[in-house]
Structure formats: C-alpha cells, structure tokens
Amino acid sequence: MLRKLRTYFLAGLVVTAPLAITLWLTWWFVSLFDQWIKPFLPAVYNPDTYLSFSVPGVGLVVTLFLITVIGALAANLVGKTLLGYWERFLGRMPVVRSLYRGIKQIFQTAVSQSGSNFKQVGMIEYPRRGVHVVVFIARELDSGEIGREPGTTLYSAFMPTTPNPTSGFLFFLEKQEVTILDITVEEGAKLVISAGLVTPGHDEAIKVDEKDIEELLKTKAK
Prior knowledge:
Radius of gyration: 25 Å
Strand content: 15-25%
Number of strands: 5
Structural class: alpha+beta
Distance between the termini: 15 Å
Number of helices: 6
C-alpha cells in the first residue's frame, strides 16, 4: 500500500507542480505591474473604483498600451528628433552612457525581426579533451569581424550553465572544433536544464521505479 501511495504521489507531483509554479509566476508577474501602475491611475479610469473587488491585470494592460504609444511616437519625425536629443544627453554621462548602450543593444537584438536566434546545438571539448559540453550556435562569422586576421570561419557559440541556462560563457570557435548535434534547440535546452536527466526524445523528468510501474499497471488492470 505504501509503495502504491508513493507512486500515486510522484505521478500527482509531476502533474501539479509545474502547473502550480506556472500559475504562481503568472500571477506574480501580473500583480507586479498592478502595484506599479494602479497607484498612478486616475480614479475614473481605475475599475477598482466601481467594483467591490480588485481587477487583476489592469497595470499590465496599461503598460502594454503605453509602450505601444511610445513606439508609435518614436517612429515619426518628432519622436525620432526627441529620442536623438535624449540619447545625446545620455551619451555625455560617463557611466550611464555605457549602461544605456549595452542594454539598448541587447533589447534591439532580442526583439528585432532580423536578429538571429540560436539555430543549432553543438558539442565541444571543454575544459579539457575528453570532456564534452553542449553549446548553442548563434551564427557563423569571419574572424575579421572580431578583430582577428580575416579569412577564418568561426562559430559564435554560447555555453549555458546548469540548471540556469541564462548564464554561461561566449565562445568563438573554428568550425572544425564544433560537432553539430542532430537535435533541436528546444531539446538541447531541456538537456541542459535537467542536468542530463531529460535526453532528446524523452520528456519524463522523474523516473519511477520499474516495480512501482508494474504494480500500478496491475492495479489499473484489476
């Protein structure tokens, strides 16, 4: 009986934990914008004024609307002129200048339709021969683009850390140093995040004991 309960618990945990964490993160994200924006909304535009309960998501909707309006204004001649004045002003500030340019470049690369995303997954020997790590190929470039002598084809590759793939190391590698894997970027990300527990073609993150599975199947058959 205890073995069956343990199996049922693990099966329920696999189903409920990702769902609960996703809902909690979504609620936290929406509530964060409500806390920032709602205090500045005029009472006439705040639905909480007319209702006996708080309406979630108002701050997020207002933020998206304001960002869209700012984007529309920045696209015309007047907006571009004002933006140019603002960037020249920031360009005269020593520390803020570098910070602003770096953040702007990141966002331009992330949201630009012409920006390149990771297209392939590779494997390199690091930190020594015989030890292999997964890398994500960003693009192919010439060595002259990074200040080296031109003529050598390189891969711009990102090696993520486990289990947090948002941090890692940037490598510029010659093509022959990279072994391209026959898996998708999504499968490579699962492989990294799960620390190798989830391999391509296998989505189960928790492996239940075979005896537990057999007993569970027998119970269902009865």
